[in-house]
Amino acid sequence: MRYQITGKQIDIGEALQTHAQTELGQVFEKYAGRPTDATITFSKSAHEFVCEVTVHLSTGLTTSAKAHAVEIYAAFDACCEKIDKQLRRYKRRLKDHHKDRVEPVELFNVSSYILAREEDSVTDEPDTLQPIIVAEMETQIPSLSVGEAVMQMELAGAPVLVFRNEKKDGVNVVYRRDDGNIGWIDP
Predict the structure, then answer these.
(1) Are 9 and 49 contacting, i.e. CB atoms less than 8 angstroms apart?
(2) Is pLDDT above 50 for 16?
């Protein structure tokens, strides 16, 4: 298990790093089994400390949590409780479905773009219909079942997840609807 513990414009002491590794290690022993790596980032926002934790599991799923508190240890502990709750739910769902993924999730590399929005596009007609690309990156699309995709989206706290459907071998999308339900696009 690899830990990457960093602070954004604040110093992270040895005691906090040891505390973070110990606490997350106990959570992983209880629920996750084989996490591959964890990224823990501490920062300060006004008078509060912010802790963000992202954990990659050996099954290919990713879970993340974010918490705020006045004390830095309290922020980490709240974040650790959120990770614990997410992993507990994940493990319960795996047991409920009586399915254990034996092999890791297959990932496909694709291009991802960030497009710039025009500030005055509401009032004026654009000169061209070609968008301005701000950033171009590589991203990965996992090969999952629909249930696993919904679980991955909830674990990551993302509003939408693009995945490759294992059963139909096509690209699908799951997203959180405004009414609180989950939408599934299967072209």
Answers:
(1) no
(2) yes
Residues in a beta bridge with 172? 163
**106-120+128-185 has the same fold as 2-96:** no
| CATH value of 2-96 in 3.30.70.360, 3.90.1490.10, 1.20.1640.10, 3.30.160.100 | 3.30.160.100
Q: Which of 82, 91, 27 is nearest to 59 (CA)?
A: 91
Rounded CA-CA distance 3/138 in Å is 23
Cα 80 to chain centroid, rounded = 14
Residue-wise burial string across 80-116, b where 16 or more C-beta atoms lie within 10 A, e elsewhere: bebbbebbeebeeebeeeeeeeeeebeeeeeeeeeee
Note whether 57 and 35 are within 8 A (CB): yes
51 close to 75: Cβ distance less than 8 angstroms: yes
pTM for the model stands at: 0.59
CATH architecture type of domain 106-120+128-185: 2-Layer Sandwich (3.30)
Supply 180's token pair. Answer: 């609180």
pLDDT digits (tens, 9 = 90+) for 156-187: 778 898 988 888 778 899 998 888 888 888 88
